[in-house]
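step: validate -> pass
step: tokenize input -> pass
step: predict -> running
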Amino acid sequence: MKLPRRNLLHLAASAAALPALPRIARAQTYPTRPVRLIVPVAPAGASDITARLIGQWLSERLGQQFVIDNRPGGGTNIGTEAVVRAPADGYTLLMVGSSNASNATLYDKLNFNFIREIAPVAGVFRGSLVMVVNPSVPASTVPEFIAYAKATPRKVNMASSGIGAVSHIAGELFKMMAGIDMVHVPYRGGGPAVNDLLAGQVQVYFASTVASIEYIRTGRLRALAVTTMSRAEALPDMPTMDSFLPGYEASLWYGIGAPKNTPAEIVAKLNTEINASLADPKLKARLADLGGTVLTGSPTDFGKLIADETEKWGNVIRALNIKAE
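step: predict -> pass
step: emit ->
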């Protein structure tokens, strides 16, 4: 039977569209079961708090629970590798953070290549670190702290959320630029670091505003400066570190990633929903109240941020000869 040319063209177009149908259906129905959002640090830190805010929104919007799964250890590498090895089906996601960018240089041998094996989904949060001290420290300003540290070399313990974390690199950069020596005490996440700072086991910490702002407001910690070039909205009266050490800058950021080869339609759906959450006045205000700004954009935008930050902190790590212990 010979079909008219019009019918042949119609059939050809229909056949070409068939492969797209399962992908479209998959994106429309996703998720059909709970989704794990792996946070590669301990609970109570900035990454964990941010993940729980986004997870709650996604659970409500998409009708399935987004379960927060804390996997601390290895400077975020244990949790990150768990996502790298997970099925690329959208049901295992990663709370990506600044540490992922620095680890590419910090560790000589990793079982994965972060940029190649984690697909960027969406940015969520970007904010300043804040230099906080235990109230027992006899310093109310950065110059007073520098003078105190110089007078008591290696008597001041500096906490971090892990070797190579932004809190660590920010502290090392401060030490170098201020010409002081402090003992680095790494923790498995921001939460434990803050707890020991509150207890006086360590004296100073370059903390996220997310994890420290309530303690600052209640006077349980004393803030000396923020690490970004501009002042933080949540701490408008706090000076910038750049005003004391010209050229100093560090910021903290978080977003969502997925295993490579996760269907583009699922990545796009998650990106749309996350950007919608960041436009919601209540969530936007919550993040601003915690000291950060929303980090909206496409997966490509988030991927560029990751690449830029990997290069920036790689240069700092090499310059300071920071090594994973």
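step: describe -> The first helix runs from residue 5 to 17.
step: cleanup -> pass
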